[in-house]
Amino acid sequence: MTTNDAFASISIRNDSEGGAPLSVSLDDDWVGALSRLGRMVMALHRLTTSTTVSDFQRMAFQTLLAELPFDSGIWATGAMGAGPVVHSSYSHNQPPEMMRAWQKLLADDTILAETLKRPGVTLRATADGPEGGPPQPPEVREHMRRFGMEHVLATTYIDPGLGLIDGFSLYRADPNARFTEPERLLVQHALPHMVESWRNCRLRLVRQENPPAVLSGRALGICDQQGVLHTAGPNFANMMRNEWPGWRGPLLPQQWLAGNRKTFVGHRITASLHTLNDLWLVKLRHRSPLDNLTPREIDIARRFGLGLNYQDIAAELHISPATVRNHLTNIYGKLGVANKVELAKLFD
């Protein structure tokens, strides 16, 4: 073979039937679903590093559509409280008024209610309601038929640590085009990769601009101006709970947000907010002895650790060498260091 095709068709020999070869086509429902899943996962991981944030969801739906026929779809993201609160949504081949109309029916949607009971499980449904579940009220059923939602694959994913939720629905308009069980499982196993790829895509550019954040002991997140998380790196929740053991998200702690503080220095972590268009970039790191210093002391300590002498520092900061010497005496005492080498290591 000249190509690395992991999804080529296979042929096996069934000795119990006289050695006759048994060909299994990857177009067959079950084996074909496995093949399509592999291609989708590979494509999604490529999108993470090759697609802009604004294009990712559109391209992710195109990736799904290449392996699974459907007419339209919705990807909604939000936060969990007493119920789901939608922060943003992406519609594939649905008009904007569909989501506006659905928001008014959200509390009565039995498909949504059933997916919330079984997060991570893709449910099959029709406009009449979920399989094995309660029927849709007439107004929801009418809404679904109006927008071509005769057959549905619906899934919710809840991150209990961050309090975030992703909701997906794929639709077929033809009443005779029922989703099959292999198709249901294909979507169920593909969508977690979509969620993770979407998170990585949103954080990728931030990580590139903030390379220290990839080091251990640091974490990144993105929140809105009300302090509600939209996404976060995998170690974000654990670091937050190091400082606030009862924190579950998605709202940042009021202890931090009170007084519109951009920086919070706690017992175990230091947290800061940085403008990111109309959102905030949230940076977390383990607390350092340097957090005990004033901004002026940080300036002096960094310069001294880089090798500047008293006179050089004094000239750069427009203060006297004696003032620099007094600051360094305080710095050494606060940090518990004995020489310039130990001081420099704290800035590594």
What is shown here, in short?
With 348 residues, the chain is an alpha+beta fold. The chain has helices at 29-50, 53-67, 96-105, 110-117, 138-146, 181-209, 236-243, 254-257, 295-305, 310-317, 321-335, 340-345; strands at residues 10-13, 21-24, 72-80, 84-92, 123-126, 129-130, 151-159, 164-172, 218-223, 229-232, 263-265, 269-276, 279-286.
Write the layout of secondary structure elements.
Blueprint: E1 10-13, E2 21-24, H1 29-50, H2 53-67, E3 72-80, E4 84-92, H3 96-105, H4 110-117, E5 123-126, E6 129-130, H5 138-146, E7 151-159, E8 164-172, H6 181-209, E9 218-223, E10 229-232, H7 236-243, H8 254-257, E11 263-265, E12 269-276, E13 279-286, H9 295-305, H10 310-317, H11 321-335, H12 340-345
Antiparallel strand pairs: 1-2, 3-4, 3-8, 5-6, 5-7, 7-8, 9-10, 9-13, 11-12, 12-13
Structure keywords:
348 residues, alpha+beta, Beta-Lactamase, Arc Repressor Mutant, subunit A, 3 domains, six-stranded antiparallel beta sheet, elongated, disordered N terminus
The overall pLDDT, averaged over residues, is 85
Class by SSE composition? alpha+beta
Radius of gyration in whole Å, from Cα?
Answer: 27 Å
Separate helix tally = 12
Question: Shape, please?
Answer: elongated
Number of domains: 3
* N/C terminus separation: 49 Å
- Report the major sheet: 6 strands, antiparallel
Number of strands: 13
**What fold name goes in the CATH topology slot of the largest domain?**
Beta-Lactamase
Share of helix among residues?
40-55%
Strand % is: 15-25%
CATH architecture descriptor name of the largest domain? 2-Layer Sandwich
CATH class of the largest domain: Alpha Beta
CATH H-level homologous superfamily name of the largest domain = Transcription factor LuxR-like, autoinducer-binding domain
pLDDT below 50 for ≥5 consecutive residues: which ranges? 1-27
What strand order characterises the main sheet? 4-3-8-7-5-6
What string gives the helices and strands in order?
EEHHEEHHEEHEEHEEHHEEEHHHH
